[in-house]
Every structure is written in structure tokens, then in C-alpha cells.
Amino acid sequence: MSQWIKILALGAVLSLAGCSGAKTPDLSEKSIAELQAMMSDGQLSSVQLVEYYQARIARYDQGEKGLNSIIVVNPDALDIARQLDQERAQEGSRGPLHGIPVLLKDNIDTADKMPNTAGSLLLKDNLPKRDAPLVAKLRAAGAVILGKANLSEWANFRAHPSSSGWSAVGGQVRNPYQEGANPCGSSGGSAVAVAADLVVVSVGTETDGSLTCPAAINGIVTIKPTLNLISQGGIIPIAHSQDTAGPMARTVADAALLLESMTDSTVNYSSALQKDGLNGKRIGVVRNLMGYDQNLDNTFDAELKALQAQGAELVDSCDIATVGQFSEQEFTVLLSEFKAGINAYLEQADLPEVNNLKALVEGNKQLADKELVHFGQELFEYALQAPALTDSAYIQAQEGARRLAGKEGIDAALDRCDVDLLIAPTVGPAWQTDYERGDQFEGSASSPAAVAGYPHITVPMGYVEGLPVGISFFSGANTESLLIGAAYSYEQATHHRTAPTLEWITSAAETE
């Protein structure tokens, strides 16, 4: 982690001693509803809650053996919390997020003292003048923006191969469940911070798997929503055909609450939190999104009984016929849309030395000893040569990828099997971080929903060799309520998640 970021983060934490002057109750692993009840009863203040998380960040996230999940702590977080406490006392609560700390992935614009870096040293001075729309909504809901989360640099769209969770600004994010295990990416910092109880909830982003993979591998919940349910504005882009922000939480209920606060939708997603959300649902088991890890498959197959016990009717081998057929088109789309999107973002940013993609490529070369130390920038270079958005090659690729993943993929499987939703294992357990070999992905369930722009939820379903794994629920466009109901019902019936012990961080700190 760069020294200037460390100073800002640690300075905010060290200034906390004795701030609240009141005894803080046990806050470990508390949900939004539990924290709101404590604040309503006068047992807890938002200031105390911010202090609690900032102290845990200093204890478990910083230092050579820390989790490195957070790039910067908001230096104004305590002041914001004090203002919200005063408002609660005088005017009452704004709602479920009033006074609740939220962490943002460091590719989301905030108009404050925190730069938006995408993990790159080239953007260390990128201080946006406006909040991203989703951030404005969170502030209006009363959330405290606690800080910015580390990520795979440029949301894992710079090099091939690469290792998830590393950025030149933040260093390597570490999986809290096992020393040396990878957190997956690119929203690894957002996932790890929630898993390790460094924040209540966080916001990540996904183009293809960057919410669902780190959530599953770090034992938490995420909701990748339907494309454009959450505004893409103010988020450093990869591809507008697939990019979306999404909530990351320890429970389905908290993820649903955070989703509500970030969208323009009038849908009350919390109303879908029913324990009978699986009862009477027909569910297709997508076998051709499996088969890459026998232990994972065995764990998944054992969980099918839990779904049936909650009243679900399973249709086995409800495969997506087009799996593997849209990868080439997707890659063309990502390259073309990244070139157009990043140029547009940089043109409006106050960064005269890096105002387009070509300047980024040159800037990385000039900082090669820091930026290119582990892997290159092949994807940047490919994108420079990608077709324009007006080119027929791009247009055909975009139409083909969306059709194959959506109408002829997920939609066709739902219709053929006459089911409400589909399930599969999310991704295999975490691999060991290895800069030479890069990420050791064997398979995942992310691509069909990501390319189609459809919603996808992952929930903890147990452990494989001591590492968390998740189960995926996905369906057609705008089926968030259906999926939330099913995921909540499964979660409440199984309660698979257990908190990481963080013993390896504790022992490392004690020997320093």
C-alpha cells in the first residue's frame, strides 16, 4: 500500500481515541436491522459504530500481514456520523441506512477528499467534482461513506493473465479465511471487508463475475442486479453493456436493503424477504455450469435437499445450451466499449496527463517498476485496436453476445424446463495467489447472467477444504424480488456462513 494512502487511513483511525466518551456495546457481525434497533434505543451512536469499524481496520487491515481490503478511510467519516446522530436526535431517522457505514469500491466517484483511483497510480490525483448517482442516493439515505475498497487494478481489465486483488495503490487484498488464499476479483476488497467485519455492507461492481466470485469465495452475499437498475454514472467503466454496481453483505436482508437505496426503482425488495420464498418454485439445475471441481459439485448436490425441504421442485439438467458460445463476442464488446468508455471518463476528469487510453498505456510504461511489476497491460493494448462502437464488427458482437446469453440462453432454458429460476455452484474455492501463473479459475456460473444483463445472487452454501463456496440463483431480467425471496429462504434454512477467525493476522501482529 502506498505511503500517502496509509497515512490518511491510519491518521483517521488514530484520532479516534476517546472520541465518543461512551461504552460501545458488542457490535461484531451485527446486521443493519440490529444496528438500527440499537441506535433507536439509544444503546449505540453512529459515531461509535464508525469508531468500531475504523479500529478493526487498523487492527486487521493495515500492516504487512493485514488484509489490505481498504485503500483509504474517509477522513470525514466521524464528522458525518456526528451530524447524522444529531439529526436522528432532533428529527428522527431517515430510514434503514441512517448512520450505517458503507464502503465503496475504489472505482466509484465521490465528491470528497477521497480520490477515485481504480487502484492505479495514474489516477492518484483523480478527485471527482460530483458523487456518482448511487453515492448521492446512499448519502441521501443517511449512509456514512466509510472509505474506498481495494480492488483488482482497473477492475481486472488491464492484463491477461493477472492475479485478482492486486493494485499498485492498495497492494494485494488477502482472503480472510486462509493465509495466501486469493480473494477473487475485481471487487475483492469490498467482499473481504464485509467478510472480516470491517464494515456493515459494501458496494462492488461487476462486468462478468466481479461481484459474484469474490462474494462466494469470501463467504458473503451479493446481488448483481439487472443491467441499469443501478446507474452506471460516475463509475470508472469497462463495458456499458454489462457493467453494474451491486450490494455486498453478510446476509440477504442487508443486501436487499442496500440495493433498495441505490436504485431508481420503486420496488420494495425487502418485502421479498420471506422464509417461504422457495415454496412452490420450480428450479432448474444447470449441470453444464458444473463439472470443474468434484468437491464443489458434491457440496452443491447435498444442498439440493435443503431446497426441496423448503418446498422447491427441482428440474435436473436444465442446461443453458449456449454456454461457451458467446465468449468471443463478449471479448470484442468489452474491448470496444472499454476504449470508448474510458476515453469518455478521462476526458471529463481533471487529469491532463492521462486523458485517454493511449496516455494510460504510456503512463504505465513510465511507472513500470510499480505498475507492471507483476503483469502487463495486454488488454489495454488490445483495446487500442478494438473496433469503434459504430463498426459492424462491434455491433454484431454486441447483438450476438446478448442474444446467445439471454434469449437463446437463460430465457430458453427457463422456457424449455418451465422453471422460475436457475441454480448452479457459483465458483470453486479460493486458489493460492500466484503472480507467475495468475488466477486459477476452473469455472463459474457468472457469464450467462453477466452477458445477458440479468440478475444473479450468490449465497454461502458451505465450505470445500475449509474455504467458502456459494450457490447461485439467477433468472430473467428484473426478477430481483423472485431471486431475493428464493435466496433468503435458502439462507434462513441453512445458515452456512461462519465468520473467519483471522487467527493468522492476529498471530502475525503479535510477533511484530
Largest sheet: 11 strands, mixed
Mean pLDDT: 94
- The N- to C-terminal Cα distance equals 18 Å
How are strands sequenced across the largest beta sheet? 1-3-2-6-8-7-12-13-11-9-10
Q: State which percent range the strand residues make up.
A: 5-15%
The percent of residues in helical segments reads 25-40%
Gross morphology is: globular
> Uncertain runs with pLDDT below 50, 5 residues or more?
1-20
List the helices and strands in order.
Answer: HHHEHEHEEEHEHEEHEHEHHHHHEHEEHH
Number of helices: 17
Structural class: alpha/beta
Q: Give Rg in angstroms.
A: 21 Å
The total strand number stands at 13
Structure summary:
This protein is of the alpha/beta class and 512 residues long. Helix content is 39%, strand content 12%. The radius of gyration is 21 Å and the shape is globular.
